[in-house]
Amino acid sequence: MDAQDVNDIDIQQTLRGFKYSRGRVRATLTRISAYLDSGNDRINICQINERLSRVRALWNQFSNLQMKIAELEDDPNNDVEADLFEDNYFNTIAKAEELAELEDDPNNDVEADLFEDNYFNTIAKAEELLLFHAVNDLIMM
């Protein structure tokens, strides 16, 4: 094995490491995006803002890794990776900002709406239960 072979192996290992790291950045973005899409009733403005700042930091990480990969490898699939990340990144930013605006809007009281829904559902179930017992009592007489 000559010096060129050793150099090629080092480059391939470095490239694999960069691609692995790029995949982890993509996975983090996907996880945050899925969280925002989940419709979780417990999402609040603080969580949204924290996740938004994490998403924004991912842009620099991805860009740096993408640039290093492009220096080591001329593969058109790298451009596809960048395009997919960019689309997901901007969609996630838009979702987070939209949710932050909704949470920050005093006219949009999501928790009050949920409480009201739960309250009326509980009353309806209690009425059904009372009716069931009344009918059951009549049948048992």
Describe this structure in words.
This protein is an all-alpha fold and 141 residues long. 87% of the residues lie in helices and 0% in strands. It has two domains: 3-108, no CATH class; 109-141. α2 (45-72) packs antiparallel against α3 (76-104). 10% of the residues are buried.
Structural class: mainly alpha
- The domain tally reads 2
- Tell how many strands the DSSP assignment holds: 0
Radius of gyration: 26 Å
Distance between the amino and carboxyl termini: 96 Å
Query: Quick check: average pLDDT?
Result: 81
Query: Counting H and I runs of at least 4 residues, what is the number of helices?
Result: 4
Low-confidence stretches: none
Q: How would you describe the shape?
A: elongated
**H/E series, N to C?**
HHHH
In which range does the helix fraction lie? over 70%
Strand content: under 5%
Largest sheet: none
What is the element layout, followed by pairings?
Elements: H1 3-37, H2 45-72, H3 76-104, H4 110-140
Structural key phrases:
141 residues, single chain, 2 domains, mainly alpha, 4 helices
Offer a quick outline of the entry.
The chain is mainly α and 141 residues long. The chain is built from 4 helices and no strands.
